[in-house]
Amino acid sequence: MADKKAQLVIEGAAPVELPILTGTVGPDVIDVRGLGATGHFTFDPGFMATASCESKITYIDGDKGVLLHRGYPIEQLAEKSDYLETCYLLLNGELPNAEQKAQFVSTVKNHTMVHEQLKSFFNGFRRDAHPMAVMCGVVGALSAFYHDSLDINNPQHREISAVRLVAKMPTLAAMVYKYSMGQPMMYPRNDLSYAENFLHMMFNTPCEIKPISPVLAKAMDRIFILHADHEQNASTSTVRLAGSSGANPFACIAAGIAALWGPAHGGANEAVLTMLDEIGDVSNIDKYIAKAKDKNDPFKLMGFGHRVYKNRDPRATVMKKTCDEVLGELGIKNDPQLELAMRLEEIALTDPYFIERSLYPNVDFYSGIILKAIGIPTSMFTVIFALARTVGWISHWKEMLSSPYKIGRPRQLYTGELQRDIVELKDRK
Ligand code: CMC
Fold first, then answer.
1. Which of 236, 300, 301, 364 to mutate to test ligand 1, by most ligand atoms within 8 A of the CB atom?
2. Measured distance CA(92)–CA(82) in Å, rounded
3. What residues does each domain of the chain span?
4. Exactly one of 306, 324, 421, 427 is catalytic; which is it?
5. Are the CB atoms for 396 and 160 separated by under 8 Å?
6. Pocket lining for ligand 1, CB < 6 angstroms
7. Which of 2, 43, 52, 386 is most open to solvent, judged by the fewest CB atoms within 10 Å of its CB?
8. Could you read off the pLDDT of 74-96 as tens digits, one per residue?
9. Measured between alpha carbons, how far is 361 from 312 in angstroms, rounded to an integer?
């Protein structure tokens, strides 16, 4: 794995040889672990040129717009697989055979309910709290309810926690929604598929159980697949970092949810709809494009750009197709917000500012439009992302704990004060 070497010449010191590591695909990486011994560290805020770990789960080629989970292209998974199968793949490395799939689905269904006492936990929150704020709290609280699977050094405990998280996230997400609406929380129904059950818990009430549209359930399932994992993004790196200290899985996932919430990451799907509302009409697009280009204006076109993709986000392509299907099924034609979004995309894609910077629509640009059409309120969009991404987070957490690892502890370039003595309060100016 380390045939080539890089040589680093530091003025006044002997050259340092650094091994170059080669993955199965993708750029080689220079192994700088030995550098600390020379009294130097690397400086890379924002991890622009740093691989934080070795992983076998997901591969992205940002220049070509490729996304593979365990080697399988996202387009094929979205077309030929389903979310629970994709979960099995991410967690175990291979797609399940029929027997393994039936067993996995049954195990997940076995864990869909949450501890009855967890319900009372919700009462501590204001009903108008942001659903992501409640999610951070209730997912973290799972560690107070499921003590029996918290030994991170026990592979069986790790397995049970992983299944519990995948199984309980839809239940918790729907509970958050029902609480915000002041409606009774719905128990999961294990005769339904994962996506159908989520829609049932979201939209049905004890006094009215309506059948779930198969097209909407399929679209929901596809949204889950498209968000399932995305290698070492901010929230996944947060989960790994939290996990590296030995924190329990529920606490680590709560940390991931908090990191996901930001508008530069998962919060972008909500921000896209807020932005479309703010733009209001096609006649205002030019004004907002100008704002996005203005360096003195913090406004950015939400749902555009990506740290890794410098080509189309492959998830956005599948999402757009799903968007057309859902709007067709619901008979939504001439939706003004969709029209606005399409026009915005068209203008941005032909504008030299966006072309030069390779700013394409990302997954969040279309997901919000579909979620809104399904009837999911804007404030729940990032919760849906968190629900779907939980399997990715937990797969990375498990991968890290399954081999030797070190606590994540970056260094810094210190530019603060030198050592100085405290001046008595009476003598301070
Ligand atoms: N609108 C206008 N200008 C932009 C945008 C945008 N959405 N995104 C990047 N730029 C400009 C940026 O100002 C910079 O210009 P310059 O080179 O003149 O200084 C250049 O493009 C490079 O951008 P960057 O901010 O250095 O890129 P980054 O890799 O640090 O940030 C990003 C990536 C996703 C945070 C950023 O593109 C962004 O804030 N986009 C909007 C939020 C969004 O849609 N986020 C969802 C990402 S996909 C879902 C997920 O994985 O979470």
1. 300
2. 15
3. 3-50, 70-258, 265-372
4. 306
5. no
6. 230, 233, 264-266, 268, 292, 300-307, 357, 359, 362-364
7. 43
8. 999 999 999 999 999 999 999 99
9. 7
Predicted confidence (pLDDT) per residue in 216-245, tens digit: 999 999 999 999 999 999 999 999 999 999
Question: Cα separation of 232 and 134, whole Å?
Answer: 25
Q: Which fold has domain 70-258?
A: Citrate Synthase; domain 1 (1.10.580)
Phi, psi of 257 (to 5 degrees): -60, -40
306 flagged as catalytic = yes
The gap between the terminal CA atoms of the chain, to the nearest Å, is 60
CATH of domain 3-50: 2.20.28.60
Which class is domain 265-372?
Answer: mainly alpha
Residue 1 in this model has a pLDDT that exceeds 80: no
Under 8 Å between Cβ of 87 and 167: no
* Nearest atom within ligand 1 for CA of residue 303: 44
What would the pLDDT profile of 368-413 be if each residue is shown by its tens digit? 888 988 999 999 999 999 999 999 999 999 999 999 999 999 999 9
Give mean pLDDT, residues 38-66.
95
- How many angstroms separate the alpha carbon of residue 348 from the centre of ligand 1? 13
Smallest CA separation from ligand 1 atom 9, residue: 305
